Amino acid sequence: MSIETSILEQIKENETIIIHRHQRPDPDAYGSQCGLAAIIRANFPSKKVYQVGENVHGLAWIAEPEKIEDDVYKDALVIVTDTANQPRVDDKRYTKGRYLIKIDHHPNEDPYGDICWVNTKASSCSEMIMDLVNALGGELTVPDDAARMLYAGIIGDTGRFMYDATTPHTMRIAGQLMEHDFEPAKVNQKLDSIALPVARLAAYVYENMTITENGAAYIVLTREVMAKFAIKDASTAPIVPLLGKIIGVKCWTILVQQKDGSFRLRIRSKGPVINELAKEYAGGGHPLASGAFMPDAEKIPEYIKKLDAVAASYEDHTGETND
After folding, report:
1. What is the pLDDT, as a whole number, of residue 320?
2. pTM (2 decimals)?
């Protein structure tokens, strides 16, 4: 029995299904979680299907999570999408169900769940949800709204098809989703739009960023800076790709100070592998897109030296120069 068939069997056997995703969700977390929930609801209307986790206002247009009581987990099937490590699962009740399934596309360093389906070659977890549907030979249909959610997830995790994780298969899946009744251009525009405070913060980032001699770039966004632009951490996502647009930058980090004084690190790369560096700072992720954490600002200089060393060790074959 294939892993996709095993997942379908569990969906069929359980009357209550609860779907989780990671903390600080992005479009792929929302898209894979809520897209899968919508597919299950459409094909099994008698089942009770819930999507849980914090509500992120900026992503509410994709879908919204639901609040459920603890007793709903009794004898439930729990599915966690787009979450590599158990500490990152949003809503710690995910272990309270009868059966647990992990569906993810990050490196499988924490293989939790009774079924653990991981495909690191997938551009996104949303792509994997469509792979699940396609592998089952017509047993599941995809409603239009689920197609919209999954498309948003793919667009989000591929940076509108600009990142290396985009494959011919990714494009075929995106095309399949675009055949449904929703407006892909509006999804693209929604994900590409930024609020005026974010635009002003973007200008600040370009004015105040630092680029090392070896092509590592960074910016530290303190609580004071965030307050000046009336920006919260969740709204900094559109800022993350900016440094990578600069010719000569190989890898970069946005360091965002949290309420408790700690820093969240958003680490990205156009070539150098940065997830090993992320692991040194309580993080991890994809080779070219990772996250990490620092308890305070004391280790920032040390981190920047290591980021610069990663950039220095990478031979750039793109033809980019710092000129």
Report:
1. 57
2. 0.88
